[in-house]
Amino acid sequence: xxxxxxxxxxxxxxxxxxxxxxxxxxxxxxxxxxxxxxxxxxxxxxxxxxxxxxxxxxxxxxxxxxxxxxxxxxxxxxxxxxxxxxxxxxxxxxxxxxxxxxxxxxxxxxxxxxxxxxxxxxxxxxxxxxxxxxxxxxxxxxxxxxxxxxxxxxxxxxxxxxxxxxxxxxxxxxxxxxxxxxxxxxxxxxxxxxxxxxxxxxxxxxxxxxxxxxxxxxxxxxxxxxxxxxxxxxxxxxxxxxxxxxxxxxxxxxxxxxxxxxxxxxxxxxxxxxxxxxxxxxxxxxxxxxxxxxxxxxxxxxxxxxxxxxxxxxxxxxxxxxxxxxxxxxxxxxxxxxxxxxxxxxxxxxxxxxxxxxxxxxxxxxxxxxxxxxxxxxxxxxxxxxxxxxxxxxxxxxxxxxxxxxxxxxxxxxxxxxxxxxxxxxxxxxxxxxxxxxxxxxxxxxxxxxxxxxxxxxxxxxxxxxxxxxxxxxxxxxxxxxxxxxxxxxxxxxxxxxxxxxxxxxxxxxxxxxxxxxxxxxxxxxxxxxxxxxxxxxxxxxxxxxxxxxxxxxx
Length: 555
Ligand code: PEP
Ligand code: MG
Hints:
By secondary structure, the protein is of the alpha/beta class. Helix content is about 50%, strand content about 15%. It has helices at about 35-60, 65-75, 80-90, 95-115, 115-120, 120-135, 160-165, 185-190, 225-245, 270-275, 300-310, 350-355, 355-370, 385-400, 410-415, 420-425, 430-440, 460-475, 490-495, 510-515, 520-530, 535-555; strands at about 1-5, 5-10, 10-20, 150-155, 170-175, 195, 210-215, 220, 260-265, 280-285, 315-320, 375-385, 405-410, 430, 480, 500-505. The chain starts with a strand and ends with a helix. Bound molecules: phosphoenolpyruvate and magnesium ion.
């Protein structure tokens, strides 16, 4: 059986499935038929089992996880909680309902106390799920722990679950929901996990089933044949060798350079990006530095962060984006509006223009960091829709000492007037995540429309081609910094459409570097032509794959 979804990156993995159970629903509020004593026994035993299990896990995990798990074990043993559960059972409730209500009461208490204690509410929910799963004799919801490396199959992952996945244990991740720009996909890419998302059929897979997960083709093969296994194992070995290979600058097979740059959201990832051969930074998301801040950061605080970033790339290009507040990236000090459609509201350059001092401070901090370091700083504005916004931003940036000022192309309006925008801006960088969202009218935060959020769609590709053509005509660089650049075959198509550099999560660099090296410029243009001519996203991907296979056979 072959299951299809959207592959993230180019990895392959072979392993056995461990499913992540869905959260348990609220138990029915009905009278117990077992009798009070039997229900009290069940509840006590389940609470004790869960407490012991959490303690055991804590001992095995060590470090900060041990403290969290021990605190959870204490909750399950808390005499006040046990007393409340017993009381509810005495009133006729089932053990499930009594545990649910008892822990919900505990949760409310913590939330009412606020601060650090309120943040433990999710831990209480987790204990409630564990005890009720134990009562029902079903697997505990959450990331499973079968005791050996496994292929994780889940409907979707919460950001917290995704962020704590251990790449040593999780050979691959298969999610029923989610698109290429979902949190799960972004975190999988960051961690370098082999992943296929948006594969609803995968939810029929059973624990222990043998599978091959092929992210390059977006497939999951159930019970593979010996030949399929041998081919997958050979590809895993090839990729391991690739990751070890000395890193070269990005280039097509004919030598055309395509600088490969890193997308970063903090200075923590700098060493990893350099180790993976990032030739510079194509997108530094500055808003990620200040997501928790209530007040606009000072020039001094910003200057320190930017200096650290620029100092890591002497002589290299570093593209910093000014604060992109709003919609999926709210910032307390810039978001003042309660908007019905935040993605269409006062976001990106619009919100900065409304709070110009914040933008002035940021540009000043950047110009000072630039003066103190040897990187080639380029600064760009997010969510630009008009030539007027381009003129406003580039003029202000130059006034404050920024030498190279560009804009992100994330709206169809900017793509369709790229010739005029690029006659004002020094460069363009295409944000394919938002460009796909706005072109397809599909909210990037909504799982229900994730299938439409596909940068392979010819409508999105045609807009990229408009920007590429404008850049070529005016001799201005056109980068790509959305997740699309991390898809090895799409990366070649984007170069065929006129992209002059590609920026991505550092974990994708090796795959994209290898893919570019397989095609010359004429090949890239051919791949772009067949993708543009397709009917939809799936057809464009399939047509490009077929054309790539034909190019390889002709060699
Ligand atoms: C994009 O929209 O493609 C982009 C790179 O910006 P972000 O994902 O931060 O909105
Ligand atoms: Mg964007």
